Amino acid sequence: MSAPLHERIRREIEAAILSGELQPGARLPVEHELMERYGCARMTVSKALQSLAAAGLVERRKRAGSFVARPRVHSMVLDIPDLEQEVTGRGQVYRFELARRIVRAPDPARADEVALAGRGDLLAIEGVHFADGVPLASEQRLVSLAAVPELAAQDFGRVSPGAWLLKHVPWTEAETRIAAVGADRLVAGHLGVADGTACLFVERRTWRGDEGITLVRQHFVGAAYDLVARFGAAR
Amino acid sequence: MSAPLHERIRREIEAAILSGELQPGARLPVEHELMERYGCARMTVSKALQSLAAAGLVERRKRAGSFVARPRVHSMVLDIPDLEQEVTGRGQVYRFELARRIVRAPDPARADEVALAGRGDLLAIEGVHFADGVPLASEQRLVSLAAVPELAAQDFGRVSPGAWLLKHVPWTEAETRIAAVGADRLVAGHLGVADGTACLFVERRTWRGDEGITLVRQHFVGAAYDLVARFGAAR
DNA sequence: CCTGCAATTATGTCTATACATTAATGGCAA
DNA sequence: TTGCCATTAATGTATAGACATAATTGCAGG
């Protein structure tokens, strides 16, 4: 009820962006229009827009207007590594090899799968990332088809599902678990290393708003990869 | 020259905080005082302070004033894990066992050590973290005595240097490298596992402003620990 | 001594207005 | 057509003032 007006304006626009109602690149109403809509002064809508700009959700350009920001592949906060980009960025040849791809219902015994699937099915993908022909990581991924219906039509012969998702479905929230494990038979086979070799295990869930998008588990050859994250005070 | 005034005010206060001139908890000048100092309107200093508050550097309370924020042990952005707190938080008994502690000059052959040391010496610490008597992680740490002179007097028989640093020397920037490695002889000995066991290797550098504070390398027993990071859109 | 009310003070929100800055746009001239 | 320039529409910065809100502080009364 009594939330400050600029907060309310901010939240309404934010909701429209997160829900996808306002697509990336879309122009949002100019300040004068918002002034009229909310019956307030320009400073007030300006404050809401500035705050959205500070959070990186919108981009403002003089004379042109305010626009929904295009999702940055590299988040300010953490590099969610796009392996394809990283490998090619190092001048190596990238390849993704699809091993399995099925659509199935969530396993009712696994609460995380049920939560991710929502009211739809899951797309389960397995494959291996190669750099210069050498296996770099093995990947098992679940994607909610309720959240990303376009994905069903997508062919992952060569493009990695991670890269596709980053481009097409911006996330707003992510949780990453990192551990070291010895490679089991399956992973060792994918990566071409001895059983028990130290591997970096990364499990990541991403959400858009509060809708789950994907859950991915990756095993990296320990010696060939490391993960770097840099943090600074928020601006 | 032509930076907006509210930006200039913001930067000057920020600098005073990062340099340590304004200690955590210190009260900063009230808005009217800043108005006079900069000869501007209240909205202008307010904007600068609001921006600092949004970045988490200051905390504002009505009637009371604005204060330099106490460093949050858990950064909004990443849990830089304080092992002691995490272990006791799980109801286990924490212990840190110091293995070595020397003050030495930086190795001139290692650029990172020289950069970290600045014009002073380095304190090198080695030890093992235990949870319920079981080794959890082995740690090798370098601390810049130029940045943290108080540390020379500190006794690390029982408290972990990481916990001490978190409390006493807030960082503003951090870089973390994570990889999986097989345990070498030294680490395996510390952790009481077989040579070659998969370990999570974490290397972290932290800075305050642009002065290096510490460089730490930790090896975790792969099976016993994992690292979780959660990210959301910045507020 | 404690309790509760009231005065005070600092920040929070908002308005209305002015001028600055930037860049998209459209028209004019080469 | 092409290139340039003036126009103009948008945001950026700033002022001055009003009223709202919260919390500290001190005072009065039990």
From TrEMBL, chains A, B:
<dbReference type="InterPro" id="IPR050679">
    <property type="entry name" value="Bact_HTH_transcr_reg"/>
</dbReference>
<dbReference type="Pfam" id="PF00392">
    <property type="entry name" value="GntR"/>
</dbReference>
<dbReference type="InterPro" id="IPR028978">
    <property type="entry name" value="Chorismate_lyase_/UTRA_dom_sf"/>
</dbReference>
<dbReference type="Pfam" id="PF07702">
    <property type="entry name" value="UTRA"/>
</dbReference>
<feature type="domain" description="HTH gntR-type">
    <location>
        <begin position="3"/>
        <end position="71"/>
    </location>
</feature>
<keyword id="KW-0805">Transcription regulation</keyword>
<keyword id="KW-0804">Transcription</keyword>
<dbReference type="InterPro" id="IPR036388">
    <property type="entry name" value="WH-like_DNA-bd_sf"/>
</dbReference>
<dbReference type="InterPro" id="IPR011663">
    <property type="entry name" value="UTRA"/>
</dbReference>
<dbReference type="InterPro" id="IPR036390">
    <property type="entry name" value="WH_DNA-bd_sf"/>
</dbReference>
<dbReference type="InterPro" id="IPR000524">
    <property type="entry name" value="Tscrpt_reg_HTH_GntR"/>
</dbReference>
<protein>
    <recommendedName>
        <fullName>Histidine utilization repressor</fullName>
    </recommendedName>
</protein>
<dbReference type="InterPro" id="IPR010248">
    <property type="entry name" value="His_ut_repres"/>
</dbReference>
<keyword id="KW-0238">DNA-binding</keyword>
